[in-house]
Amino acid sequence: MAKDLTSMTRLGMSFFERDTALVAKDLLGKWLLFKGPQGITGGIIVETEAYLGFNDPACHSVRGCTPRNKVMFGPAGKIYIYLIYGIHYCLNVTTACIEKPEAVLFRAIEPKIGMEIMKKHRKKTKLKELCSGPGKLVQALGINPNLNGSSAIDGPIGFYYDELNPDFEIVTTTRIGISQAKDWPLRFYIKGSKFISRP
Questions:
Q1: Distance from CA of residue 46 to its chain's centroid?
Q2: What per-residue confidence (pLDDT) applies to 1?
Q3: Are 80 and 71 spatial neighbours (Cβ–Cβ below 8 Å)?
Q4: Which of 39, 74, 94, 96 sits CB 3.0–4.6 Å from 102 for a disulfide?
Q5: Domain-by-domain residue ranges, the chain?
């Protein structure tokens, strides 16, 4: 493994207990790592989307608590995984507070650690095809949906700060793949990244 993980600082609860859109932007450039049975996989977060609870028609929690979204109604810093189209799993982390069932969706990362594992999971060889979309990301990292509700603070899926990451510019635009509130500017990505799901 080329990257020295000991130089990283894991993000704590106070990071996630903030305004969701701000957390979504601040997660860009941070590291998403999964310590799985086959080894560590992950990379640099390059694209996120914010979902704003009761005030957001596109958010799962807007119609109340269900078996699918109950993780959103707990504290910040929890992993929220759900199935879309009956095929793909999406990875989120809860934010804000219990009174605000909100979350950040991870749309893409730049693969950095465990690339051979990710290539095997995705049956792809090009790095740009490994994690350039929410479903691809979960599949590539080998994240099990049973991790829904696990802790992002001390569980196997974690988020890390590396002060050696270069500076970058953030692009703010509209979210993808939703029918309601699709014009809300709550999608964020690193300008110039080759690894985002789409420009």
A1: 9
A2: 43
A3: yes
A4: 96
A5: 7-190
* Beta pairing class for 170-173 and 187-190: antiparallel
Q: What is the mean pLDDT of residues 2-8?
A: 72
Instruction: Check whether 98 has a pLDDT greater than 70.
Output: yes
Residue type, 65: C
Q: How many CB atoms lie within 10 A of CB 172?
A: 12
User: Cα(33)–Cα(98) distance, rounded to whole angstroms?
Assistant: 25
Total-model pTM: 0.96
| Beta carbons of 67 and 73 less than 8 angstroms apart | no
Instruction: Report which of 137, 172, 39 is spatially closest to residue 128, judged by C-alpha positions.
Output: 137
Given CATH 3.40.50.300, say whether it is the number of domain 7-190: no
